[in-house]
């Protein structure tokens, strides 16, 4: 089951917004949150496919958002770890 461009935008926006809420940040704005969510989808899809659970493109919209959010949280955590910024 493949996602179209609109579905990827929705996944990116929702995953980026959820990551901002989970990581106690104010977010970076609409477009950067979307980019963080899409990069999170790549990271989450890579991790989940290597764990045998299937990537983002192999599930429905809700599970894809969950996988992308997990990837975006990992990305944000690594970014904060590298930069030393714990509050943004």
Automatic annotation (TrEMBL):
Stretches that traverse the bilayer: 6-23, 30-49, 61-82
Membrane topology field: Multi-pass membrane protein
Cellular location(s): Cell membrane
Record keywords, A-Z: Cell membrane, Membrane, Transmembrane, Transmembrane helix
Main location as per UniProt: membrane
InterPro entries xrefs: Transgly_assoc
Sequence similarity: Belongs to the UPF0410 family.
Name used for this protein in its record: GlsB/YeaQ/YmgE family stress response membrane protein
Record lineage: Bacteria, Pseudomonadati, Acidobacteriota, Terriglobia, Terriglobales
């Amino acid at each position: 089951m493949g996602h179209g461009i609109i579905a990827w935008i929705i996944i990116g926006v929702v995953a980026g917004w959820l990551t901002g809420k989970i990581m106690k940040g104010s977010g970076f704005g609409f477009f950067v949150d979307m980019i963080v969510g899409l990069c999170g989808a790549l990271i989450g899809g890579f991790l989940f496919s290597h764990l045998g659970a299937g990537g983002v493109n192999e599930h429905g919209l809700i599970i894809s958002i969950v996988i992308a959010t997990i990837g975006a949280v990992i990305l944000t955590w690594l970014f904060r770890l590298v930069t030393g910024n714990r509050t943004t």
